[in-house]
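FAQ: What does the model actually see?

It sees only this:
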Amino acid sequence: MAARSIASLTVSFGLVSIPVRLFSATEASKAISFNLLHKACGSRLKQQYFCLKEEVPVAREDMVKGYEFAKDQYVMFTPEELKALEEAGTHMAEIAEFVPLSSVDPVYFDKAYYLAPDKGGNKPYALLHRALMETGRCALGRWAARGKQYIVMIRPVEEGLVMQQLLYADEVRSIREVEIPETEVKPAELKLATQLIEQQSVDRFDPSRGTAFSTYAVPTILGELKRHLRDKAWAIRVPRPLQELGLRMNRVMPQLSQELGRSPTIHELAERLDAAPEDVLEAMDAAQAYSTASLDAPVGEGERSPMETVGGVDPSFELVERWSAIAPAIKDLPERERRVLYLRFFAGMTQSEIADDIGVSQMHVSRILSNTLELLRATAVSGSSDAPLLEDARAAGADQAADDDEDDPHEDASAE
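And it is asked to produce this:
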């Protein structure tokens, strides 16, 4: 695309005037730029000025410019006063002198513009370009634009002229301000360094040689951004194959929906993606892990958070766990022990009532409960019913029943 002129001016020296058009020599659009976004929602941010004294935001129409002449002391200027201080813009670059091109240190170089001849300026433009090339000199002059006066250098390059803005002396720091220690250089070392320089020397600088910075920077930065989004943006870590399958599925699903006139099925998606239906379902589930909702976020019309609907600790859970642990052991108990447990803890009967019900003494009921509960406690701790303990319990119960039959006055009275 052809370059577009940004201004017109006249280059003059002596009685010679050359009308030229001004073109920007660099392209700022090639630079990579970033915008500041709100981390929570990803929207653009707007700059706001804030008054530190009154702690209130200040609108642009309430702002003025000021010069700080002492700590926190300013002289304020109105727009009219600042306008009066600006250098009046001119459409002329007045050349004051011609100097050897090599005498201008590149450290003074600022922005560059290309010059092209305007109507009626072809001949003097070509003459100035040829003369500067023959003499190896450049033209120095002044040019006023955008409220400021610039020192400019006009130098020949290939088939045209370049107008280079130069920095003023007080805008460039001296290298003497940099601390450089004195170091002795031996002749042999100097000779070796010179040979290395000569081996890599070329006739002139060629900016097209090598790789452009943007060729390296753009893929590198985009790759780093994609890697960051892939590895850091997901709320839950998801394997890369599932992430990539989910991305492919997002691209394919609209195409399939348009072709079929309806939403595609899992098998249709799997066939188009050349993947197993199980993988497609897993990728759909994994897509939900990109962003998660907070448990404290309101949900529904009542605007209650999920945490508010979560109940407390139910004490019945512990009872169920205990019952599950001892239920097998109770099942293996003898019939009499099971009945004693039922009458005592489920029917709510006293030991005396249990003794009357099963026809033994109250002391015998107490011993049955004590032995049975000890067995159940051991079973709950070990996690399994112990067969030897059950056999011992049965034997002990039988012996105890025989002893009680011999000397139980309660049973004798009942028998009579």
